[in-house]
Amino acid sequence: MTIHATAIVHADAKIGDGVEIGPWAIVGPNCTLGEGVVIGARATLENNVTLGRNVRVGIGSVLGGDPQDLKYRGEATFVDIGDDTVIREYVTINRGTSHSITTRIGAGCFLMTNVHVAHDCQLGNQVIISNGTLLAGHVTIGDKVTISGNCAVHQFVRVGRFAFIGGVSKVTQDIPPFVRASGNPTALFGLNSVGLQRNGFDALVVREVKRAYRWCFKSELTLTQALKHARENLEPMPEVHEFLTFIEESQRGVGV
Known about the structure:
The protein has about 260 residues and is α/β, with parallel strands linked by helices. It has helices at about 195-200, 205-215, 225-235, 240-250; strands spanning about 1-5, 10, 15, 20, 25, 30-35, 40, 45, 50, 55, 60-65, 80, 85, 90-95, 100-105, 110, 115, 120-125, 130, 135, 140, 145, 150-155, 160, 165, 170, 180, 185-190. The protein folds into two domains: about 1-140, Hexapeptide repeat proteins (UDP N-Acetylglucosamine Acyltransferase, domain 1), CATH 2.160.10; about 195-250, Udp N-acetylglucosamine O-acyltransferase, C-terminal domain (Udp N-acetylglucosamine O-acyltransferase, Domain 2), CATH 1.20.1180. Strand 27 (about 180) and strand 28 (about 185-190) form a beta hairpin.
């Protein structure tokens, strides 16, 4: 491992093989750094942070800070970040609260400059979040979601797998899997066809999910009627079930 002479590493920290810690970086108590982790200059891991293998933390980022929640009373909470995730400059990721204990970032994610991930957020694998985007507390993001720059995502919002959110969007309602959304307020703009194609989705799957989307959001049926109609008439594919179930289980409503 390589630890710069000006870095401060707590005696309780666990440091894996091949770790690099840059100048003036701080690694606090109960932090675990997996093999090959790189911590940039002046980055801070406050406490209770676990980084998987080959995670890269950019200059000035702050991970494991107290949750910005007035209900927080100092209980032990955590940040967990999966293998191969890249965190660029000045990203902030807060620990969880007693609600879920751990703020979690999956494997292979890419969080660009000035992204904020608040307490209790749960991000899946290979999520991409562009510069300046803010996730409020308790946000849930599915695998392979892309969120463009300078978006703001409201507390408790869910974003389903393979969704794409355009830049400068105000996201106050759930975004179903496989769709494109953008705007202020956010509206849906059909399927994320390019993303689905790039990820090898079968044409029949895309066709059936598109039919479900049209019945739910582009027909004269009520949402309840559309969901029932889709259940009865579409091929019983896992992706169709996922799309319909996500909408049925939404607590905040779904942007249209």
